[in-house]
Amino acid sequence: MAISFVLIWTGWIVATRQGVQSSITPAGIVIIRFSVAALFFLPWYWRQGVLPKDVDRRLLFLMVICAGVPYVLIVSSGMGFAPAADIGALLPGTMPLFAALLGWVVLKEIFEPPRILGFFLIASGIILIAGSAVVVGVNGAWRGHLLFLLGAFSWSVFTHAFKQSGLGSFQAAGLIGFWSLAIVIPLAALTGGSGLMAMSWPELGYQVIAQGLVGGVLSLVAYGAAVANLGATKAAAFGSLVPALVALLAIPVLGEVP
């Protein structure tokens, strides 16, 4: 499952970068992602409800905020400023570091020397991949870099909240989908529209698959299963595989050569 979410995230990042370069807005990406997810999980809502009694409401709130609408808006907004290679390095690439830091501070996790060395190597790889643009903010890309780091921290909070909630990966994805959809429509109106009406049918279909099925359903289910089986910190560490894959895939799809 860990390898599955790595591949899913790679495709989602490239597809989202492609989407924000067209007529679709970040609000439109959010609408597609969570409307498709909500429809997919509709049979589950009918049987289980949308507010399970045995789930800590605080953890559920953190999950919805840190993996739902705010997270997707932060990340998709950042993708309008920086190329795909930077996205891969600074979003999933920094997740292991944030997850480890939260585990150490909040859960008092102790890391053995080989894992500490691994975190150091991940940080070094991020610096090398992102290059000088991370430091000097070439062409205003620093705005995207800051948003990606915020998104990585947000997802790390979700990772630990999900682990503590006791929910299954399918349940978590369904709840995030429902509560995110409940706030996304008025949010789209406040942010100036979605840009969906200006998209061609092939573009819309592509984004429905990439954002809705892959991003809104498969990514959460696969990542949740990885967290349940490996633990929050180890599952997040697999995100360090994404930067190189994103940079390679962006060459033929986006024409972005690192």
Task: Describe the protein's architecture and organization.
This protein has helices at residues 2-20, 26-40, 42-48, 57-67, 69-78, 84-90, 95-105, 113-130, 132-136, 141-165, 169-190, 201-230, 232-237, 242-254. 77% of the residues lie in helices and 0% in strands. The two termini are 29 Å apart. By secondary structure, it is an all-alpha fold. It is built from 14 helices and no strands.
SSE string, helix = H, strand = E?
A: HHHHHHHHHHHHHH
The major pleated sheet works out as: none
C-alpha Rg (nearest Å): 17 Å
Which percent band covers the strand fraction? under 5%
Number of strands: 0
**Given the helix and strand composition, which structural class is it?**
mainly alpha
DSSP helical segment count:
14
- The low-confidence runs, each spanning 5 or more residues with pLDDT under 50, are none
Helix proportion range: over 70%
Mean pLDDT: 77
Shape estimate: globular
Termini, distance in Å? 29 Å
Question: What is the topology?
Answer:
Layout: H1 2-20, H2 26-40, H3 42-48, H4 57-67, H5 69-78, H6 84-90, H7 95-105, H8 113-130, H9 132-136, H10 141-165, H11 169-190, H12 201-230, H13 232-237, H14 242-254
Helix pairs in contact: 1-12, 1-14, 2-5, 2-11, 2-12, 4-5, 4-10, 4-11, 5-10, 6-8, 6-14, 7-10, 11-12
Q: Which descriptors would you attach to this protein?
A:
258 residues; mainly alpha
Summarize the structure.
This protein is an all-alpha fold. The protein has 14 helices and no strands. The model has no long low-confidence stretch (mean pLDDT 77).
